[in-house]
Design a protein that fits this description.
The protein folds into four domains: 2-97; 149-276, no CATH class; 282-326, no CATH class; 334-395, Herpes Virus-1. Helices cover 60% and strands 3% of the residues. It has 13 helices and five strands. The chain has a three-stranded antiparallel sheet. It has a two-stranded antiparallel sheet with strand order 3-4. The two termini are 35 Å apart. The structure holds zinc ion (ZN). Zinc ion is lined by residues 355, 357, 359, 378, 380-381, 383.
């Protein structure tokens, strides 16, 4: 973090300098241009022969102007050179504050087989589909030979269009989408439809008494069918009608006009639509990248330490990190199991096994304990049982 702040200081200096140079340059050039235009006019447009200046004075005037242009150009070129100094200081600050020695972290074998490469490309493609950047999706698909059918793209395009409309406070596309997916949304207890109608009601409400008849018709047609599930909230909305005449701003219902309602509806829409499509709310690529930026400095440190002490062979375990990386809750998606006997995290090769008695240990621990026998004692309860009866647990 400190490294970023240090570089930011230099970047700020460059931006300030650039703005002031740009302003100064603009003023100098426009002054110069208007001066020359005035002079040109004076020299050319005078019709009165008495007014025309003798040629020696005209030459002097022009020479003087040329000298001034040259001076200003030299001055601007000097400022430009100084600016380069400030820009190169940013480069030096980046070199000083960020280590460029990432070579030791490289693991080329990760992407050596075709399957891994295709998986990575698919994750990247999905990321851009989520963002609605379909031209990039097409370009990557063409480059990698991965086929993305229109069918797959369609829901992403639709969702992005709806989100753009919501951000512009246009509820219609979202309401149409809800209408088309009502049954499936109801299955997942979504209250998106109510929230959209509520916002529409508030929108009418904020337009004052002129919208009274629309408000009442809207409440009858759209809110009434939702009374059974949102009784209290609808009562509140009806109560706000009392202040339609005097304005909602100075009433106890002023909170209804809060602009946050609009950002909330976008979040609810993203959450419910992703859930409907069986996708996580955040892009997996984003999450992996964010987690990576948190974990990377610590891993880089430990790798450099291992290299300097010549103990590089310590970190050889596949799919395992040499230290525990603490990540926020938002990075935790499923439970993990650590064997209480071997004190190791379970893996595909050594999965957790549930014993007859209900206690869980890793398969390696069970194999070691049973040692080929048909009887094993649970290390916890200690019920004697057949190790063959243990069942693998999947998280
Ligand atoms: Zn037990």
């Amino acid at each position: 973090m400190n490294s970023i702040l240090n570089v930011e200081k230099d970047v700020d200096k460059v931006i300030n300098k650039f703005t002031s140079i740009l302003d100064h340059c603009d003023t100098c050039l426009s002054d110069l241009i208007s001066e020359i235009e005035n002079m040109r006019r004076d020299l050319l447009e005078s019709n009165d022969p008495e007014d025309i200046l003798p040629s020696s004075i005209r030459v002097n005037l022009i020479n003087h102007a040329i000298k001034k242009i040259q001076d200003v150009t030299v001055q601007l070129a000097k400022e430009h050179r100084d600016f380069h100094g400030a820009v190169s200081r940013v480069g030096k600050a980046i070199d000083k504050n960020f280590s460029g020695e990432y070579g030791c972290m490289e693991n080329r074998s990760l992407w050596s087989d075709e399957e891994s490469k295709t998986s990575l490309n698919r994750v990247v493609i999905e990321h851009f589909m989520r963002k609605g950047m379909l031209d990039i999706v097409d370009a990557i698909a063409a480059d990698t030979g991965i086929e993305i059918s229109e069918e797959v793209k369609k829901p992403f395009t639709e969702l992005n269009k709806i989100l753009i409309s919501l951000r512009k406070r246009d509820l219609k596309p979202a309401l149409d989408w809800v209408e088309a997916n009502r049954a499936r949304l109801a299955e997942q207890n979504s209250n998106l439809e109510f929230k959209l109608h509520r916002l529409q009601f508030i929108e009418y409400l904020s337009q004052g008494v002129g919208k009274q008849s629309e408000l009442i018709a809207f409440a009858r047609n759209k809110l009434q069918p939702l009374v059974s599930s949102h009784e209290k909230e609808i009562q509140t909305l009806m109560g706000s009608l009392l202040y339609l005449k005097t304005g909602l701003e100075n009433s106890p219902y002023a909170y209804l006009l809060d602009i946050l309602n609009w950002s909330e509806i976008c979040d609810v829409f993203i959450r419910d639509s992703c859930c409907l499509m069986g996708m996580s709310v955040d892009s997996p690529l984003n999450i992996a990248f964010e987690a990576g930026t948190i974990a990377f400095p610590a891993l880089l440190n430990i790798r450099q330490m291992m290299n300097s002490r010549r103990v590089a062979n310590v970190w050889t375990a596949k799919d395992e990190l040499p230290i525990v990386i603490e990540l926020d809750r938002k990075f935790q998606f499923h439970s993990i199991f650590a064997c209480p006997i071997l004190r190791q995290q379970s893996s595909d090769a050594n999965p957790p096994m549930r014993l007859d008695c209900g206690h869980v240990i890793s398969r390696d621990a069970l194999t070691k304990m049973s040692n080929g026998s048909t009887k094993v004692k649970c290390p916890y309860c200690p019920v004697e049982q057949n190790p063959q009866n243990a069942k693998q647990i999947f998280f």
